[in-house]
């Protein structure tokens, strides 16, 4: 088996170690005996690169770098991304990338940025007077399709000025610790088709092997119509220890 | 009354040092600024003969030390926040010894300034020279995005009422070059400096540019520059249990990668050294440890490949261990010991040259352990 990771805009959106998500996917693909490949997708790459990817990964960045990619993401590659979304390609969209999946992002100064509009949610930045959402996060994901025995939470670190309001969109989970989408309604991220939108850095995948497994398994399901077992990830004692340590961190 | 408050704060400094509770490099100043908020506005100009603020994410402690040492050896009276206490409280504290003297001596102020505190301090006092080294994201959880920090610097510079020379790195990756185009104040004179990758050489370049802009670059100060040794934790060498420890402050991906590359040569000498990586997530370290995945992978693997062992330690050692696992550094090579003292003892037991990469609070702790003193 061979799985291709489409890594969007590594040149622009590479804040907070989100590259580690790609590394974690590659490592776990290797453990599962699947050959993993990375496609770096830049603003100059053809939209078809999106459709050749079995898993999409996109990280966050400062407002300024987000602005550099937004028109390519929404206009040039929008059609391909929508197609990938509808055929249930798994994707991981962190922070700034997550915000661009929604209807729009309203910065505290300047015009709003239109997003892909895959579901009914939007993000607003209230300016420097409203507290930035920063700190360790623990998210309850008991009811989620990627919950595994011993892993019914997600752990990570959030750092965002924008607040996201998801209305009736399905959240990724509910915060036990941390701000999550907006610091008010306890929701964190979204799970729409197989696209995961989240504010969690850390990076998220190394310490949450259940989410890594979900992305890989969904990709294998789409491409090879077969299922993998979580236990095939082998000895994940270290991941479990790091996960448990992160669960106990102060907010 | 004023002089009484100053004396009181100074006594507090001496007390803290006597009791070995620290250098007294922040608490006295913090107390002082509470009682007397305009302290800096009044005394910085009174004490300044010439002055420089040095700010940026990486290198400010080392460069301040280079500048102040070379001037001091040339006989200039110097005021500097040597211990890296670079918030307003630290700046206030470092003025105290000079204010206690019976006669006020105008000195060269060599002050390293925290990136976030820079606008405030520029508002208190405009020095002759400002040096912007670089801006990297290790402080993001404290100050938000880089463009926000740049924006605040620009605002502050646009308000200065007197001429100021601004030295800045015009290398793109250092992230401070947009300043030149954003500042509209005609009183600001920009001097670009081309940074180089070799860290020590780079520091020397900035230090000599600062001296030049202060009009203090002489044959003597230039010669003094070359003879300075690294500040604590910045490549400092400490002998501990017959083992040579090199302490490297690695608080963000940029400084980590730079240091890895500058140590590349040693990796040809297989198993001649041990690598220790120590990661804490206290406030001075940055609470977010995601950045370890932004360290350039190739130089990290190269250095670890040549080491006999890779010891990971500190509060977040498991994150480091997981990074090693994902990068497929052989399991047998990676030793996990969260307790820093025990980890350093273990490193010493290998009897090889030790390269210790640590975050800020872990560095202070490591140094205490290796030096066997209470003071960092």
Describe this structure as you would to a colleague.
The complex is a heterodimer of chains A (251) and B (376). Chain A has 251 residues and is α/β, with parallel strands linked by helices. Chain A has one domain: Class I glutamine amidotransferase (GATase) domain (Rossmann fold), CATH 3.40.50.880. Chain A contains eight helices and 14 strands. The mean pLDDT of chain A is 94. By secondary structure, chain B is an alpha/beta fold. The longest helix of chain B has 17 residues. The interface between A and B is medium-sized, with 32 and 28 residues.
Quick tags:
heterodimer; A: 251 residues; alpha/beta; Rossmann fold; 30% helix; globular; B: 376 residues; Protein-Tyrosine Phosphatase, Chain A; six-stranded mixed β-sheet; 44% helix
**Weakly predicted, low-confidence segments of chain A:** none
Identify low-pLDDT runs of chain B: none
CATH class of the largest domain in chain B: Alpha Beta
Q: What is the succession of H and E elements of chain B?
A: HHHEHEHEHEHHEHEHHEEHEHEHEHEH
From the N-terminal CA to the C-terminal CA of chain A, the straight-line distance is: 41 Å
Output the strand order for the largest sheet of chain A: 2-1-3-4-14-13
Largest sheet of chain A: 6 strands, mixed
Which range does the strand content of chain B fall in? 15-25%
Q: Show the largest interface.
A: A-B, 32 and 28 residues
Largest sheet of chain B: 6 strands, parallel
Structural class of chain A, by secondary structure, is alpha/beta
Extended strand count of chain B = 12
**CATH-wise, what's the superfamily of chain A?**
Class I glutamine amidotransferase (GATase) domain
The CATH class of chain A is Alpha Beta
Can you name the CATH architecture of chain A?
A: 3-Layer(aba) Sandwich
CATH topology-level name of chain A: Rossmann fold
